[in-house]
Every structure is written in C-alpha cells, then in structure tokens.
C-alpha cells in the first residue's frame, strides 16, 4: 500500500513540474544571461546551488551565459599583498598592480566555476573578455575622473559566444576586457552582463545580488514587487524610492529592456535555487522588470 504522506509529497513535486512547463516551453532555446555575484559567491553550498540552477536551465533547453565578478575576493587578495582597495562611485580604482591582482583572481574564480559546472554534467567554457576581443573597451572616466584601468565597453564580439552555444558549451565569462592595442581593463560585472545581454538579444538577464529585489515601500520586505513595468520603475526612481546601490542596477535594467532584452530579474543569490524559483514559478522570489507592453505572468 502506498504511504499517503509520500504520495502527497510526490504529487506536490508533480505540481511544481507542471507549473514550470509553460515557462520551459516559452523560453526553450532562448538566451539567458546570469550575472553571478554578491554573497552567493562566498558560500560554497550556495555557489553549488546557483551552478546547479544554471546547469538545469541548460538541460531543459535554455542557452545560459554566466557573467561573474569577484570583488570581495579581489579585495582580500589586494589586502594580502599590501594594496589598498579604493572605490569611487562604486567602481574599484585600478592601478597596474590592482589590475594584475584582479585578472589573477577573476581567472581563478572562473576556473573554479568551470570545474563545478563540468562536474554537474555539461560542457563549460571559461572565457576572459580579452579572449578573441570578446569585450573591447576603453578607459572609463566617470564625471571626468581618471580611476585607472577601469573599462567602458565599446563592443561585444557575439560570434565567440554564439559559436560556443552552438557547440553545446555553457560560456562562463570573467570581465577583464582590452582595447585594440591590447591594454587590459577591469570591467564592472553588472555593466558587462548588461552589454552581453543587449548584444546577444537575450530573452532574460538575471542579476544575482544581496538584495531581494525592489520594494514599493523603501526597505519593507513585505512590499516586494514581483513584476515591475519600466514606466513604474522610473516613477519609483523619481519618487526617491529606489536609491543607493540599487539605483544603478535598476537603471541598467531599464536600459536593457529599452534595448531589446525581454525581462530583467533582480534576485537575492542567498536564496537557495533562486533562479529556478524565479523563472519556473508564477510569482517568483525576486523582482522581474519588463517592458510596458509585456504581459505579466503573476497577477495579484
């Protein structure tokens, strides 16, 4: 005789799979760019869960591209070698020594992610923004200030990424780019993810952060907005309800939507399997930003 409790658990799992079915069908063979960063990079258990999510997305028919940073790890290594970490406007001031550390650390992080993804049964390809001119950049001068070898992306060589996707690889990109003369630049990972999603015509761009998403009422978690139209996002900015570190993220999200990306998701990477919960359930666990003409998936 079948145990009733076990049967109920099995039926719950079946319901979850059925809920995911329309999203699997809708996004099959579509590009999704995942910007991986924040505290989820610091915890090995969370790191594995994020990579499991990305691998599952690939196995059910998505075309995921992972773009990662490593700011906290870079700061730790700078401290080890006696380099002071300085920031201006949220960007790391990058002299030659800091650039050398950043490239070393990001390459190390990249290989760790590639190894983990490979152990989960798909083919990963670790790629630097310098490889094949994937990310061509020039020196970024915020408000005319020189902050060193920090890059502003000029061009994304999408052929490299499309070739990898067609060959059934899962690209894992770390954000050291270069100019036409070969000078390397440290590029903000959020900016790189946005530029890649825009250039690839991605269906989705997901930012894994340390925040749950966008709140309608300041920082009250009970007012998390599941789906947010671009026009409403602009109104929240005008009203001062989006500020601090979330403000540049939301501006990047709005720009991505206005340049062809269908949906942008802001997720708390500390929630286990946040990507699957956001993409394959009706309400999700973060904030999805969409164009004003797009249909909402979740209705209050």
- Categorize the overall geometry: globular
Topology order in helix (H) and strand (E) letters: HEHEHEEHEEEHEEEHEEHHEHE
Question: If strands are numbered along the chain, what order do they take across the biggest sheet?
Answer: 5-8-2-1-11-13-14-12
Helical run tally: 9
Structure description:
The structure is a single chain. With 300 residues, this protein is α/β, with parallel strands linked by helices. It has helices at residues 4-27, 44-59, 71-80, 96-119, 158-166, 189-200, 230-238, 246-258, 274-280; strands spanning 31-36, 63-68, 87-88, 91-92, 123-128, 135-139, 151-156, 169-174, 176-178, 184-186, 204-209, 227-229, 263-268, 287-290. The strands form four sheets. An eight-stranded mixed beta sheet has the order 5-8-2-1-11-13-14-12, with helices on both faces. Helix 3 (71-80) crosses helix 4 (96-119) and helix 7 (230-238) runs antiparallel to helix 8 (246-258). It has nine helices and 14 strands. Helices cover 41% and strands 21% of the residues. The mean pLDDT is 87.
Summarize the structure.
With 300 residues, the chain is an alpha/beta fold. It has nine helices and 14 strands.
Would you spell out the secondary-structure blueprint of this structure?
Blueprint: H1 4-27, E1 31-36, H2 44-59, E2 63-68, H3 71-80, E3 87-88, E4 91-92, H4 96-119, E5 123-128, E6 135-139, E7 151-156, H5 158-166, E8 169-174, E9 176-178, E10 184-186, H6 189-200, E11 204-209, E12 227-229, H7 230-238, H8 246-258, E13 263-268, H9 274-280, E14 287-290
Parallel strand pairs: 1-2, 1-11, 2-8, 5-8, 11-13, 12-14
Antiparallel strand pairs: 3-4, 6-7, 9-10, 13-14
Helix pairs in contact: 3-4, 6-8, 7-8
């Amino acid at each position: 005789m079948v145990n009733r409790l076990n049967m109920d658990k099995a039926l719950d799992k079946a319901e979850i799979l059925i809920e995911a079915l329309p999203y699997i069908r809708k996004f099959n063979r579509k590009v999704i760019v995942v910007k991986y960063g924040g505290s989820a990079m610091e915890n090995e258990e969370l790191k594995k869960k994020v990579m499991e999510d990305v691998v599952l997305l690939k196995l059910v028919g998505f075309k995921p591209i992972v773009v990662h940073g490593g700011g906290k790890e870079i700061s730790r290594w700078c401290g080890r070698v006696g380099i002071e970490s300085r920031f201006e406007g949220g960007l790391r001031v990058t002299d030659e020594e800091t650039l050398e550390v950043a490239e070393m650390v990001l390459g190390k992080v990249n290989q760790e992610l590639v190894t983990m993804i490979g152990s989960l049964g798909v083919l990963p390809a670790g790629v630097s923004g310098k490889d094949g001119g994937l990310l061509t950049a020039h020196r970024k001068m915020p408000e005319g200030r020189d902050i060193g070898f920090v890059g502003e992306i000029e061009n994304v060589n999408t052929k490299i990424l499309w070739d990898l996707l067609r060959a059934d690889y899962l690209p894992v990109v770390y954000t050291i780019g270069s100019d036409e003369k070969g000078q390397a630049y440290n590029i903000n990972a959020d900016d790189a993810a946005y530029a890649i999603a825009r250039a690839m015509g991605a269906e989705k761009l997901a930012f894994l952060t340390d925040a749950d998403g966008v709140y309608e009422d300041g920082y009250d978690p009970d007012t998390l907005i599941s789906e947010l139209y671009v026009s409403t996002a602009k109104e929240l900015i005008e009203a001062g309800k989006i500020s601090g570190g979330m403000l540049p993220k939301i501006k990047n999200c709005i720009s991505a939507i206005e340049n062809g990306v269908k949906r942008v998701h802001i997720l708390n990477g500390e929630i286990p399997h946040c990507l699957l919960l956001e993409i394959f359930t009706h309400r999700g666990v973060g904030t999805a930003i969409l164009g004003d003409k797009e249909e909402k998936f979740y209705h209050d």
